[in-house]
Amino acid sequence: MPESPLPPTDPSPTSAVPAPDDDAARLREQVAELTARVDELDAEAATWRAQALSSWTETVARTRQGVDLDSGFVSDEVEAMKATLSWRVTRPLRGVRRLITRVKQAL
Questions:
Q1: Distance CA 84, CA 90 (A)
Q2: Which residue blocks in 1-107 are alpha helix, DSSP H?
Q3: Mean pLDDT, all residues of the chain
């Protein structure tokens, strides 16, 4: 008799199929492991989010401080320029120029 290409079959049908209780217990264990992993990842994400927000807040504070310093510097420079002799001497010329511009716009 030639050999069959199929593997031999087990005469007891329940030996290959796990018991429903075993499947349920294994699935509960997997769910518990996955739930624990999700909780770990949530905690890690919260930590990263807090660090990112803290860094962002510090950066914004430094930027605003720099802008305040820059605007103070620019304001000081403008005041120093307006205090110069040349600025004060050319004031009437700037007034005449503004007057000419207004007249041209009115026409």
A1: 10
A2: 20-82, 85-89, 91-106
A3: 80
